[in-house]
Amino acid sequence: MLHRFANPGQFLRLSGRVLPFLWWPGVLLTAGALIWGVFFAPSDWQQGDTVRIMYVHVPFAWLASAGYFSLAVCSFISLVWRHPLADLAAVELGPVGAAFTAVCLATGSLWGKPTWGAWWVWDARLTSVFVLLLLYLGHIALVRAFDDPTRGYRAGAILALVGVINLPIIKFSVDWWNTLHQPASIGLTGAPTIASSMLWPLLFSAIGFTLLFAAIVLTRTRAAVMERRIRGLLMAKASSVAEQESVP
Amino acid sequence: MTHLPFIVAAYVIALGTPIILATDAVFRARRAKRRLDAIDPRRNRGEA
């Protein structure tokens, strides 16, 4: 199953069919959810309108962690099965995940200033998300640090797998330590502690941004597959020209 | 609306970043496809 999609032609055909179902629903859901969140959802009795930052901050926080988990899965597949597409997907996931983590930190800071009175505090949640950003940046640097790309992919994959330990720390930091950041309002078990008038636009926004994240990564991976094919063809062409020239 | 500059700044960053990433990804894929179509004989024959 995995090796079926290692075929670049197969991947390009399949991803080309899937992409329209990611881009358009992603754009429409995100736009609708944000209009709902900004203009129609109620303000918070304590925080006022600053709670509207939640409709962008929370999806980016979820995607920062989910993106890193995807990076770790690609790295595992790359190390175990030497799947070339997993290498390319991991390389393309890194910058997108890093950008989403940076947006999570920036929007959190913009929410923190009016709510806590500080742009930044070194509490466990904020610090562990900052470490996540450093892991992403480390991965981006490491996969590009070697002349032989395969060695870079291996080193990046090991870093990504070691860094997975940070994901449960991010998730449970608000429970394990006394943090300024609030505990989770939505969990897999138990009812959410957030009003449904705020929960629905938040969920739609999260789904919309998730589809956009997937569309961006898939489009970048398609481009990387085609660029690799171009390099291969140009090298083959150059070596055949060199061979012809060497024949007396 | 209270704290409007904070809300506007958060939305500009949160919408601007995916827009920049998406635009870059789409143009990069289009550029690669055009180059590949130009040099790959199999694609020119409609085989891939």
Helical content band of chain A: over 70%
Order of helices and strands of chain A: HHHHHHHH
Return the domain count of chain B: 1
> Which runs of chain B of at least 5 residues are low in confidence (pLDDT < 50)?
none
Q: Provide the number of structural domains of chain A.
A: 1
Order of helices and strands of chain B: HH
Mean pLDDT of chain B: 87
- CATH C-level category of chain A: Mainly Alpha
Question: What's the average pLDDT of chain A?
Answer: 92
Number of helices of chain B: 2
Structural class based on helices, strands and sheet pairing of chain A: mainly alpha
Number of strands of chain B: 0
Question: How many DSSP H or I helices of chain A?
Answer: 8
Helix content of chain B: over 70%
Largest interface: A-B, 41 and 28 residues
Poorly predicted tracts of residues of chain A? none
Whole-Å distance between the termini of chain A? 48 Å
CATH topology of chain A: Four Helix Bundle (Hemerythrin (Met), subunit A)
Strand content of chain A: under 5%
The number of strands of chain A is 0
Taking the sheet with the most strands of chain A, its summary is: none
